[in-house]
Structures are given as C-alpha cells and as structure tokens.
Amino acid sequence: MQESVTLSLTGNTTTLSVHYFPPIDVYDDSEIALLNLQTYNTFPNINETNNHFEIHLVNPDRLLNNNKFPTCFITLKKECYDIKDIKNQILAQINNFNNDLEYLEIEKITFNIGIDQVDFRTTIFSNGTICFNVENSIAPLLGFEKKNYEQYIDGHRSQKVSNLNIVNSIKVMCNIAQGSFNNHMSSHSIYEFSPSENIGSKLIQTPSNLIYYKLNKTNIESLTIQLVDQDHNPINNLGEKLIINLHIKRFGS
Questions:
Q1: Dihedrals φ, ψ of 18, to 5°?
Q2: What pLDDT, in 10s, does the model give residues 164-210?
Q3: What integer pLDDT is reported at residue 183 of this predicted model?
Q4: How many Å apart are CA 234 and CA 180, to the nearest integer?
Q5: Do residues 197 and 189 lie in contact, with contact meaning Cβ atoms separated by under 8 Å?
Q6: Per-position b or e across 145-181, b if 16+ CB within 10 A of its CB
Q7: What is the pTM of this model?
Q8: DSSP code, position 138
Q9: What is the CATH T-level fold of the domain 4-43+167-250, as seen in this structure?
C-alpha cells in the first residue's frame, strides 16, 4: 500500500492517459490533488465556425464583367490568433486579391483593424463594405453584430468587447477523483482556473493551497486527465506539450 504517491503525465494533447503495471495500491481513505500544470495558451479561438467574412467594393464604376462588385472572400485557418495575427492574415489575403485585380485598374481594397486596450472593443477601417452577415462569420469574435458595415471614414467600432479568449475557464478532469459537482451533477473535476496569460504565452498553474478529492478506487490500473472548457468541451492545444503533476496521499496526513 502506498501512503504518498506523486504522478506525472506528459503529452501533446489535452487528454493524457497512462496505465500502471503493476497497479498502484492505495488506502481507502486516499485523496488526490493537482500539484502543477504547464502548457501554452494556444487554444484555438478561430475555427471553421467563426473564420469568415467578405469585403465588397460597392461602386457602380467597379462592376466586373459578370455585373457583380469585386468581392474579397476572407477565410482564416484554424489557429490561436491575437489581433495582430488576425490583421496580418487578413491583409495577406487582401494583398493577393488586389494583385489579381491590378489589370482591371480597379481601386485596391484598404483595411486596418485594432483593439482598444482600455475597453477592448474592435475598430475596423476599410474602403469597402465589411460583410459580417455571412455563414461562419468572424463577427462575434471581434465583438460585432452579424450585419454589413458600409465604408465609413471614422471606421466601425464593435458593439461588444472582442472575444479572442473564447476559453474562459479550464477544468482539470481526473477519472479516479470524486467529490466535485457541476451544478447538480457529480463531476471528476479537481481544479479550475481562468487563463490570464497572453495568447501564445507559457501557462503555468501551481495551486498555493492544494485541494484534495477522494479517490473512487484503491487499485489504480489507469489514470486519465483531460482539460475541458467552461462548457465541458474538450480543449485543443494545437499539439503543444502539456505536463500534469498530481499527488495522492492518505486523508489527514
């Protein structure tokens, strides 16, 4: 029987599993706590559900041969972006669009985007119409309503704050722990925190006061740790390394 055991799990996903042979035998009053968690704040905030918008150059003099206005279709890849990354990716696609239309001698699309560091609202400038009223629109991520925004010299300011950190809370789930609840349902959560680090930064959690949860078994053949968000959805960390350290001890020791 083990009175005190430290377990370490590492991997490149947010679900880590390990099998023990021989199994680890502990006392029936044993409990478990998170000692340390290390990874990077690279949880994707843009995916196939919120990665698209369009820019129309709406002007009668700019009609193409098909009687349609030039339209730049912006689609971002699934990734963890800060506002500078978003801006650079959009500008790269706009530059390609502008280059393709050079032979038509059509006015080029201009674009700029930024976030106010005081109230975290987004402002967008463009000489075209920003079409956020499209499928899989990026509008909610940037704090905008899903509608079209015509050219305006002072730019368009979002109605809400930007939501680049869509993972508001991270729960550490452990399959051999019991005693926590999510609303009225029992849960395997042993720790919860809100990531405050900048996107892409090192994320380290070392609880100053360990909270122990009773084990649901005394013969540990396997152990699974999973990180989930505030809605209990599995979190993707884009293959970054995750390190989890746990401690098992007898109650009161």
A1: -145, 145
A2: 888 889 999 999 999 888 888 888 999 999 987 778 889 999 999 99
A3: 83
A4: 18
A5: no
A6: eeeebebeeeebebeeebbbbebeebbbbbebbbbbe
A7: 0.79
A8: S
A9: Jelly Rolls (2.60.120)
Residue with tokens 């940037």: 142
The structural domains of the chain, with segments of one domain joined by +, span 4-43+167-250, 52-161
- Specify the residue for token string 């390609």: 96
Could you say which DSSP state residue 85 is in? H
Read off the pLDDT of each residue in 31-40 and give the average, rounded to a whole number. Answer: 96
- The answer for residues whose C-beta is within 8 angstroms of residue 153's C-beta and 6 or more apart is none
The amino acid sitting at 114 is G
Question: Distance between CA 211 and CA 215 in Å, rounded?
Answer: 13
Residue 127 token pair: 């000489």
Taking the C-alpha atoms of residue 31 and residue 48, their distance in angstroms, rounded to an integer, is 41
d(Cα 234, Cα 60) in Å, to the nearest integer?
49
What is the per-residue pLDDT across 109-163, written as a single tens digit (0 to 9) for each? 999 999 998 999 999 999 999 999 999 999 999 999 999 999 888 899 999 999 8
- pLDDT at residue 66 in the model: 54
